[in-house]
Amino acid sequence: MSGAATREQIVDAADRLFYHRGYEHTSFADIAAAVGLSRGNFYYHFKSKDAILDAVIEARLAGTRHMLEQWESQQPTPDGRILQFVEIVLTNGTDIQQYGCPVGTLNTELAKLGHTLHGQARGLFTLFRDWLREQFTLLGHGEQADDLAMHVLAFSQGVAVLSHTFRDEEFVRREVDRMRDWLSTYRK
Amino acid sequence: MSGAATREQIVDAADRLFYHRGYEHTSFADIAAAVGLSRGNFYYHFKSKDAILDAVIEARLAGTRHMLEQWESQQPTPDGRILQFVEIVLTNGTDIQQYGCPVGTLNTELAKLGHTLHGQARGLFTLFRDWLREQFTLLGHGEQADDLAMHVLAFSQGVAVLSHTFRDEEFVRREVDRMRDWLSTYRK
DNA sequence: GTCTATATATTGATAGAC
DNA sequence: GTCTATCAATATATAGAC
Predict the structure, then answer these.
(1) Contact assessment for residue A183 and residue A79, using Cβ atoms and an 8 Å cutoff
(2) Which residue of A has its CA nearest to B101?
(3) What ranges in A46-167 are assigned the alpha helix state H?
(4) What fold, for A50-184?
């Protein structure tokens, strides 16, 4: 197998396992088993667990950038784009119920561990934050755009934590409806 | 040292360490060192790590019940009590910035681990949920009281996750202000 | 590039002396 | 009730054959 393909498989498996089980609870053996590699060969591709985490975060950053670009091309209006973000708690509802928000849970875990890569992980939030701020600016709310962006982010995290804890889909729907109403007051 | 006192010390130390560093990242050795006990003697008091976690959750449940009773005696009105809860993200602002919400982060970690005691930990949320629902019922919003209670809980979790990630106190203040405005529309 | 074998540290947990 | 000594399992990580 070519090096690039194996590396990609490792990052994919690690990404999924870190999300489903948490970073610390995932061992090299788990990732190696998921890819079908021996533990020994693993270090040919990544020299440390931090290196894998770094690659996973990079992959998530790239994936997020791609998703935001798609949203921009699919949704012509800024409020449509913000709504697309808000509805992610429904779109990814099953995953969030089972594993929480991939961005929030990773940041919480790395912050608590005092991990050196927490700054990198925070970048995932910053990506959404800046993008949301841009949409609110386009809606004519430049002065409070960052505040509004953070409010939308807080919504997503609050819903994700409680959805993960209580596994109640109706609660998620009600919160999205509430957010839709709130958002309509900021529409052009 | 008497058995009860040592046990209490262990639970206190474990409670703090589980909060600050996470459950899985905290080892027996860490707790034993914090209390000043040898690892060996540890098992005289608790036979497993799960048993300590169980005791910690029980202690938190008792502490939370006590706090809610205090709030009830200090705040005569239901909206004053709800506001007391909302402002906890400011009252405990420093801790939340450093370690997140003790209830939310524990629930997220245990849910992801698929830990048998996640149900117990969920009880911490349920305690707040039921108490908030009662306050909203007293305000005359019986039919949607649980929905409103969950909304307030979601607020607290969203703010806690982002405060933990970005360590921005001004953001917390703005969110509390927003919540105060929202709450005023449900006041008698 | 992949494997087996191994080193080293730490984990949760036990046995038995005092 | 507290200690030291120890166990078995698992963790990250390395060495070297193929």
Answers:
(1) yes
(2) A108
(3) 49-74, 78-86, 88-91, 93-99, 102-113, 118-138, 145-166
(4) Tetracycline Repressor; domain 2 (1.10.357)
How large is the average pLDDT for residues A125-133? 99
Residue of B92, B121, B91 whose CA lies nearest to B109: B121
Other Cβ atoms closer than 10 A to A63: 13
Q: How far is CA A122 from the centre of its chain?
A: 10
Domain boundaries, chain B: 1-47, 50-184
Residues of chain B with pLDDT under 50: none
B162: closest chain A residue by CA? A154
Find out whether B147 and A174 touch, Cβ atoms under 8 Å. yes
pTM for the whole structure: 0.97
Longest CA–CA span in chain B (Å) reads 58
At B3 the pLDDT is 60
- Give the pLDDT confidence score for residue A188 in this predicted structure: 78
The CATH number of A1-47, from 1.10.287.40, 3.30.565.10, 1.10.10.60, 2.60.120.280, is 1.10.10.60
**Considering only CB atoms, which residues of chain B are within 8 Å of chain A?**
20-22, 24-25, 99-100, 104-105, 107-109, 111-113, 122, 125, 147, 150-151, 153-159, 161-162, 164-166, 171, 174-175, 178
- pLDDT band at A3; cut points 50, 70, 90: low
Percent of chain A with pLDDT over 90: 95
Task: List CB contacts of A9: < 8 A, sequence separation 6 or more.
Answer: A35
CA A176 to chain centroid: 18
pLDDT score at A139 = 98
